[in-house]
Amino acid sequence: MSAYVYLDVSLQLKTIPSDPILPVFVKGGILTSLEEVFGEVGGCTTVDVLKFDPKSLKLILRVPKEDYVKVRTALTLIAKFQEIPCRFHVNCVSPVLLSLVRCEDF
User: Fold this and answer.
1) Global pTM?
2) What is the DSSP annotation of the chain?
């Protein structure tokens, strides 16, 4: 059994910013939310952005299985990204990365 859970996530913004969105900023927003909700322990959660498409704003995240609920909670509570109203929509979750191919063409 895998020690990780993989999430296929879409970032939905109210308006598209003029500057390009980089995966490091997306990861930073997730880690900030984790720290705000769960304190220092949440801020130390491992979140890996395996793939990011700046056009469709879709990403694949890898998180340790024991931190999945924390990450899912933090994603749900994010209301702004770079001061733009947003939401993160989790399209699919799986313990097997290859199975995310079935969700949607990435």
Assistant:
1) 0.88
2) --SEEEEEEEEEESS--SSPP-HHHHHHHHHHHHHHHHHHHHHT---EEEEEETTTTEEEEEEEGGGHHHHHHHHHH--EETTEEEEEEEEEEESSGGGGGGT---
Q: Could you tell me the maximum CA-CA distance found in the chain, to the nearest angstrom?
A: 42
Q: State how far the Cα of 86 lies from the Cα of 72, in Å rounded to an integer.
A: 15
Q: Residue 90's CB: how many other CB atoms inside 10 A?
A: 14
Question: How many C-beta atoms lie closer than 10 Å to residue 39's C-beta?
Answer: 10
- Whether 51 contacts 59, CB under 8 Å: yes
Q: pLDDT tens for residues 48-86? A: 999 999 999 999 999 999 999 999 999 999 999 888 999
- C-alpha span between 94 and 98 (Å, rounded): 9
